[in-house]
Amino acid sequence: MAAAPNSSAADFADSQVAFLYASQTGNAESISYSMYEEAAKRGFNAKWHVLDDHEKFGFNEVRTAVFVVSTTGDGDPPDNSARFWRVLRKATRGKDRAYSHLRYAILGLGDTNYSNFCNTAQRLDKQLLEAGATAFYPKGLADDGTGLEEVVESWIEGLWPALARVAQCAPSLAAETEAVVSSEIEAEADAVSTGLKGLALNSSTSTSNTSAHQLLVLNFQVMESLKAISGAPRVPSAVCKIAPVDSSSESSASLAEGLACPPWHASLTGEDWDDVSLAPFLATLQSTAQLTSPEALKRTLLVEISLSAADHVHGSWQAGDSFNIYAPNDEGLVAGLLERLAVSPDEARRPVSLRKRDAAIELPTHLA
């Protein structure tokens, strides 16, 4: 790996920004792609690549980069960054500060339920610094255990002014984008105020299952003088689109058992299962106790569930056994929401499939 010419981090405003990702399940890829799209709208000359394509896009020549990386296994980097890490390790062993020309920002995704939280982001930051690179924006470490959005949204919001100080931006395009966004916000605020002013979910607008405590009343008086919304986070870019599935098609016929309607619904309605031992059943929640202190960032509960093992075909349960829990939505609330969205009962029961919105980005694993 050849060293680039040495230069101070403050010597230039880069003409291009590289958004680079390493992702195991698709979350980091999706977030990185959304940032890349937003950067283009703001007038930055942006490109987007997976880290293992480092030779293809010329990582050695990249001078401004925004990394979004996740951690998998026991603190390991995602598979689609393995080649990049081998090259980076070689660069950090040298004495020539191979990346003294690089300014970077890192957003790490991890889960504190596992050891080595955000280890990929921490290692990347350490090795880039050892190779002479400079961080132009503090790294963010998002915890999937408490909700990635708690860190991701604020980190991205603060990224743009920091990025504007180190990378060139087309002012006319950025101004045009902001004007369009402002206009869209005003139009959406008017639509929200007009369309939802009378929204209420109660027994008169929903099914008979909706109880009085589900009343929802929205008061829009405070929005009457509102001209624009400022400081609100942007809606994340959609990563998929919903397409109806023809009930007679092969794709519909190949759906796995329980996808057309939830498994818990099948058991409650008396539908037969080929293997009775796999059929879900109702269980009673007997007690819950919070094991963590009220100040803890994460809440851990001890939950006692009556499985009625003696009366059920599953037989006895032993320590170490595992099971799935299906928690159905309240039917009254669902009916009220469907009615408000003008979704007919037939449409609500129709199978759908999730498809890629953009050919350039794969669906996250949890949606595929």
Features:
368 residues; alpha/beta; globular; two-stranded antiparallel sheet; 29% helix; single chain
Task: Give a quick summary of the entry.
This protein has 368 residues and is of the alpha/beta class. 29% of the residues lie in helices and 15% in strands.
Element string (H = helix, E = strand): EHEHEHEHEEHHEHHEEHHE
- Spans with pLDDT under 50 lasting ≥5 residues? 1-11, 192-213, 250-260
The oligomeric state of the chains shown is single chain
Radius of gyration: 26 Å
Please, how many helices?
Answer: 10
SS elements, strand count:
10
- What's the overall average pLDDT, rounded? 74
Characterize the largest beta sheet: strand count, sense, and whether it forms a barrel.
Answer: 6 strands, parallel
Structural class: alpha/beta
Gap between N and C termini: 37 Å
Instruction: Determine the strand fraction and express it as a percent band.
Output: 5-15%
Shape: globular
Which percent range fits the helix content? 25-40%
